Amino acid sequence: MSRRRRTFVSVVVAGFSSLLVLTASVAAQSENRDLIDGLEYQLLYVALPLTLFVLVILVYAAVKFHDNDDPQPTTEDPALEITWTAATAIILLFVGLSGYSVLVSPYVSPSQALDADNRSQEGIGSFEELPDTGDEEIHVRGYQWEWQATYPESNATTENEIVIPADRNVTVWLTSDDVIHSLFVPDLAIKQDAFPGRYTRARTIVSEPGRYNAVCAEFCGAGHSRMDATIVVVEPDTYDQWLAETEGENITEPPEPN
């Protein structure tokens, strides 16, 4: 192998190795993020060897046959064709099963919207009439161009700041007063639409207290770009104390993460 080719291969391998180190060094802050990142790593670890394999074959063919003055047609090889067809099927099956195992998670795909028909059948006309999930529940209402969160346990509300406890299963019920909005928290891998007159559910469990940026991911009018919020994750004891201290207040200041 020439020096130029050795250098090229070394650069490619080093680049892929650096990518693996960078992706593996990111710690997941929520179960949602952990599931999605895990799926991405699985697919990445399968895609990288395949990419290198195809790249090596491509370079080999380009170098070996670039000056062939008498090219010959490719001969049939049934065994080879069956092999690469079976290999492709196995890879697609792996991708499908990996994706399905994540999509069926209650954190990635919780029970979805209760549409108008279900609402009329079940008599659900407000947040208070939604079914009990057994999680810590927070009611979030989107409107042009703000987010309002209500905490059923204390009947307190916050504007553009959503407080949740760490290390607890949390259900966020979403609805909208006007147009379609979408609550998107990139660091926690939470994304759920909010529809007028309907209720959708986002579910998570966050392991790391702190502040996480949230935005509206659905174009909702002239003020869409400034419709953002902060997810404030605090220790469970801090959350319980805050709820007790703010019971019945209309607008409250969120507690500081420990």
In helices, the fraction of residues equals 25-40%
Low-confidence stretches: 21-25
How do the helices and strands follow one another from N- to C-terminus?
Answer: HHHHEEEEEEEEEEH
Shape: elongated
Strand order of the largest sheet: 3-2-1-5-8
Estimate what percentage of residues fall within beta strands: 15-25%
- The rounded Rg comes to 26 Å
Structural class, by secondary structure, is alpha+beta
Number of helices: 5
Largest sheet: 5 strands, mixed
Mean pLDDT: 83
Count the E strands.
10
What is the end-to-end distance? 57 Å
Description:
The chain is of the alpha+beta class and 258 residues long. It is 39% helix and 23% strand. The chain is built from five helices and ten strands; from the N terminus they run ααααββββββββββα. The strands form two sheets. The protein has a five-stranded mixed sheet with strand order 3-2-1-5-8, with no helix packed on it. A five-stranded mixed sheet has the order 4-10-9-6-7, with helices on one face. Helix 2 packs antiparallel against helix 3 (78-103). The longest helix is centred in the first third of the chain and has 35 residues, at 31-65. The chain is elongated, with a radius of gyration of 26 Å. The protein starts with a helix and ends in a 13-residue tail after the last helix.
